[in-house]
């Protein structure tokens, strides 16, 4: 069942920003409906087209859909309890990694966090256009992920994503139910802009 109060989570913006930006939020209540393989591929394709320094594309993803129970459970096990309690209801879990060095010269890529964030946002906005919503999580055991996947030292886990279609929040426990219902807020544009020093 699709959430009936989705409009309360739309950002109330002062300016006419795109609908997918206004509608993007981080739900915790996901429906039982799966995401089709082509939907997952579409989300990943959107991520692929994010800008990145020197076109390094430093993002990598590990993806598990609910239908692949063993892989899904493995990713869910990395989550801290406060995230796992709701995220394991999602249709898809992902671990998002960043490659911390440039392929061309092996030097440190100081832009990795920014660029992987751009790719993640592409994925999330594409999802909104498809009625698929995502919640980015930092609360997971990164050391266990590193050990489990035995990746090179220059590939490190940054976040996890829970993805799926929305459901009503009624089955969420507190404090998650109240968080799901609360209106979205942001500081003003003016408070995010640093003024030039007086000349």
TrEMBL record:
GO terms for molecular function: oxidoreductase activity. Pfam families: Nitroreductase. Keywords: Oxidoreductase. Residues 181-190 have a biased composition (Basic and acidic residues). Residues 177-199 are annotated as: Disordered. Belongs to the nitroreductase family. Residues 21-76, 83-165 form the Nitroreductase domain. This is Nitroreductase family protein. InterPro entries: Nitroreductase, Nitroreductase-like. It comes from the Bacteria. The keyword Oxidoreductase applies.
